[in-house]
Design a protein that fits this description.
With 388 residues, this protein is an alpha/beta fold. The chain is 44% helix and 15% strand. It has 2 domains: 196 residues, 3-Layer(aba) Sandwich (Rossmann fold), CATH 3.40.50.2000; 175 residues, Rossmann fold (3-Layer(aba) Sandwich).
Length: 388
């Protein structure tokens, strides 16, 4: 039996995003899969609901602490030692440098190392994003050296990380993300109507997960949607998940579309995982023309819900979507606009894309991801630890 520590610092924060959701799904599936090893899930107390319950071999350990760096570099190592862990898995790009046991780190991407992204982050990203990016840039090089094993989420990113850090192929393994089974096209009409009313969703809408982070490309999505409105007179609207009103106004002002688009956009705010599948189901298409992704979980979530996807022909997105999405050049507003027109006017093409997406998403499951991660843990059993 091994004593396995998993860092899941943000597991109980109210609004969970990409890396938080990956950690949650991994832990939930390990609970089902592994009844033998002992797990200690290290979290920071927060105001969110309990998203995971303790079981006989899974203990939730709340670790008090201040800022993320203090929590991770000072508080976490002490708790890992006190619970006598054999191995520590850090799930969100960074890790403590002074643990005395084998360290496994999930490095989702090395976007923060790329110069073009750096320029964007120093211009229009939020202070929270800039601070997080700075901490990663300061710590990740050392974390990579300290880690006995790295995990990343796509073959594209594995190649990227290997090139950046000149790693031997055996030090980094790809574990693709999955899609939760709640994301399905079989959502009841009652649930859909409840969600439509809750978020004030229009009858016809295109869906985009809005973000102030420049690489998410929300500004070009807005420009492409505006171009569509200038060329077609239908009543379709754009629903943005994740942006508040002040951020939207600022973004529209920056691109000169404050007056033109104000009445054509619906803001939902944060959408819970419980409601998100219904929002996907109600939409006509999902716009995900990101400039750069390590994986792009919303692509397969939309596909699982029977929604046609527009995404980028760059980074990991072709690996994830294969032939089941309509690809665009994310740097060209015209390319995004043409894709919107294609999906709205060509019903036969749209239906084929939906069918392909419903098959494609089945290749990505959290159960398979957990199996691969468990195999990695087992490489660090007591016998192997003695050799390190």
């Amino acid at each position: 039996m091994m004593r396995i520590g998993i860092e899941a610092q943000r597991l109980f924060r109210p609004h969970k995003h990409g890396m938080d959701r990956v950690a949650l799904e991994l832990i939930k599936n390990l609970q089902v899969l592994d009844k033998e090893n002992q797990y200690f899930i290290f979290v920071k107390p927060d105001e969110g609901n309990t998203v995971i319950e303790e079981t006989e071999n899974f203990k939730i350990v709340e670790v008090e602490g201040g800022s993320y760096p203090i929590w991770e570099q000072v508080k976490l190592p002490k708790m890992v030692k006190s619970y006598n862990c054999d191995v520590l898995h850090c799930t969100s790009n960074t890790a403590p440098l002074n643990v005395k046991i084998p360290l496994i780190t999930t490095l989702h991407d090395v976007i923060f190392k790329e110069s073009t992204i750096q320029k964007q982050l120093t211009s229009s990203a939020s202070w929270y994003q800039k601070i997080g990016n700075l901490y990663r840039r300061l710590i990740v090089d050392a974390v990579v050296k300290r880690s006995h094993q790295l995990i990343t989420v796509s073959n594209y990113e594995k190649h990227n990380i290997s090139n950046v850090y000149r790693l031997d192929d055996s030090k980094i393994q790809t574990v693709h993300n999955g899609v939760n089974r709640n994301f399905t096209s079989e959502i009841s009409e009652a649930k859909k109507e409840m969600v439509r009313e809750k978020y004030n969703l229009p009858k016809q809408f295109l869906l985009h997960i809005g973000n102030t982070e420049p690489r998410k490309n929300t500004a070009r999505v807005l420009k492409a949607f505006n171009k569509y409105n200038n060329n077609f007179s239908d009543e379709v609207k754009l629903v943005l998940i994740g942006l508040n009103e002040s951020k939207l106004k600022s973004l529209l002002k920056d691109i000169g579309l404050e007056k033109e688009l104000a009445k054509k956009i619906v803001l939902t705010g944060y959408v819970s995982d419980e409601d998100l599948p219904a929002v996907f189901n109600l939409s006509e298409m999902f716009l995900f023309p990101s400039l750069r992704e390590g994986f792009g979980i919303p692509i397969i979530e939309a596909m699982a819900c029977g929604v046609p996807v527009i995404t980028s022909n760059t980074s990991s997105m072709p690996e994830v979507a294969s032939d089941a999405a309509l690809f665009v050049d994310p740097n060209r507003v015209g390319s995004i606009f043409e894709a919107i027109v294609k999906l709205r006017l060509d019903r036969e093409f749209r239906d084929k894309l939906i069918s392909k997406g419903l098959e494609r998403h089945k290749l990505f499951s959290w159960e398979n991801a957990a199996k691969k991660v468990l195999n990695i843990y087992q490489q660090f059993n007591h016998k192997n630890i003695q050799k390190l």
